[in-house]
Amino acid sequence: MDLMSQTNFSNLVDEIVEGMDDLKASNITILDLRNIENSICSFFVIGEGNSNTQVKAISNSVEKRVRENLKDKPWHVEGLENAEWVLMDYVDTVVHIFQPETRKFYDLESLWGDAELHHFEAKK
């Protein structure tokens, strides 16, 4: 059973996770920030790619999937130049696609330690 069948997230979060999974992103985690006072958005969706090329491809996959299925696009994207950390801002949901060492360094899961964490089981 995968995460999407266990929880009730927004369609946007579902499409982001599927877009990441389509390109074999690893360690996909959703931080549910809705119950944190003064949080900057409702969700962080975090995933990893093992190279600059994979990080860029994952971000392209997310953007394409969301655009095709929800007719939405990110308000802002940054980090594509070096692709160690790409941030995609969909206003209420922020996507973070890291290379493993960069994710470990910034450790958003600990920084937002009060968030409810959900780990996505990748398709086999």
Sequence-ordered SSE layout with sheet pairings:
Layout: H1 11-22, E1 26-32, E2 43-48, H2 52-70, E3 76-78, E4 85-89, E5 93-98, H3 100-106, H4 108-111, E6 116-119
Parallel strand pairs: 2-5
Antiparallel strand pairs: 1-2, 1-6, 3-4, 4-5
Helix pairs in contact: 1-2
What does this structure look like?
By secondary structure, the chain is of the alpha+beta class. Helices cover 34% and strands 25% of the residues. It is built from 4 helices and 6 strands. It has a 6-stranded mixed beta sheet. Strand 4 and strand 5 form a beta hairpin. Helix 1 packs across helix 2. The N terminus is likely disordered.
How many extended strands?
6
Strand order, sheet with most strands: 3-4-5-2-1-6
Largest sheet: 6 strands, mixed
Briefly, what CATH class? Alpha Beta
Protein structure class: alpha+beta
> CATH architecture, please?
2-Layer Sandwich
The Rg value, from CA coordinates, equals 13 Å
User: Which strand-content bin applies to the residues?
Assistant: 25-35%
Continuous helix count:
4
Q: Can you tell me the CATH topology?
A: Beta Polymerase, domain 2
Organism: Croceimicrobium hydrocarbonivorans
GO cellular component, one term: cytoplasm
InterPro entries: Iojap/RsfS/C7orf30, NT_sf
Protein name: Ribosomal silencing factor RsfS
